[in-house]
Protein: arginine--tRNA ligase
Amino acid sequence: MTPADLSLTVLRAVRRAVGDGVLPVRELPSRVTVERPRPGGRGDWATNAALQLARPAALPPRQVAEVLRERLLDVPGIERVDITGPGFLNLTLRPDARAAAGRLLVQRVREEGLRYGYGDALAGLPEEQVRFLLPYGADPRQRVLTRTVVALLRSQGAPACLVQADAPEADEPRLGTPQDRTRQPDAPQVRTPQVRTPQPGAPQVRAPQPDAPQNTAPRALPPHYDVAAVLPPDAQRWAMLRPAPHDRVLDPAPLLRLTESGGNGLFTVQYAHARAAALLRNAADLGFGPAYDEDVHAPELLAALGDHPGVLLAAARQHAPDRLARHLEALADAFLGFQHTVLPLGDEKPSAAHRSRLALAEAAGTVLAGGLSLLGVSAPVHL
Structure:
């Protein structure tokens, strides 16, 4: 069962409770969030549905959680339901359901490719919340942040657009390599937002401010060194996007050390992608390819892959590219800890286990490439 499946399962439990007359809610939520348990939680997944419904039902959250728990315990695939904190529901899957979830997850990534994690959750946002002004002469970090926020919003179905003030985009100084030249051949088609000049009488779009509402991108602090003069293009973007907008850009020294242990998160992510590509090439030389035929014990990697859609949605909703960057680092670390198990060792013959691990490695590489593309960073297959 994937997080999307579990979300629908919880919604069905809500509908049953309303139909049974024990949950007096007039309007059902359109969706509920299912995510990894937070500190203090337990199980495989958790949801705050009971807290979400407590006020409309005029009931304590834990009472709502008990109502939902009764209707989730008989769901095939769910082994245990615990209530923690003020009313969080913690779901533990049966072993067979957990194995099926891994298979469905890898299958989904292979089917959706670099667009895995894209959705339409923000499609209904009004234009004034997704229309951004980019002042002519804006500092490089502000340009990078604003364009990346637009790309993230578009990945979640929002009709985001960019308004260039005072001068056409062609006259604007560029930072490093343009995003369309760093995109991989099969990268998601997130186009550079079209420049639109405000017409007389049109609604005024304000420039992003530190305490601005949701319809403006966050204003970044100025860098404390000349990023473009010190770093290559990919490292420039990472130095600006990896910190939160209210933090200064990353120090250049670690970004110039091309090693996993040098504190260079960008290199770790790109290296992990290159390793995934290398595993596919090496497996082809050995005469086998990826196929998720049996369960693979890689809980950290599977969890990071399963979390990716939720991370993209949160990064878009909160205008926070740094959330995606941190997630890619966690995914890369999980993959690099797993990659040594993929290929046969010595005289060992390729088996269903190797094919399944290779399929999981391929999925990890795909998600890393898709995330890097949204940040405007390249995903090399050789390092």
Q: What stands out?
A: Residues 262-374 form a domain with the Isoleucyl-tRNA Synthetase; Domain 1 fold (CATH 1.10.730.10). The first strand starts at residue 34 and ends at 35. Residues 169-215 have pLDDT under 50 and may be disordered. The two ends are 36 Å apart (CA to CA).
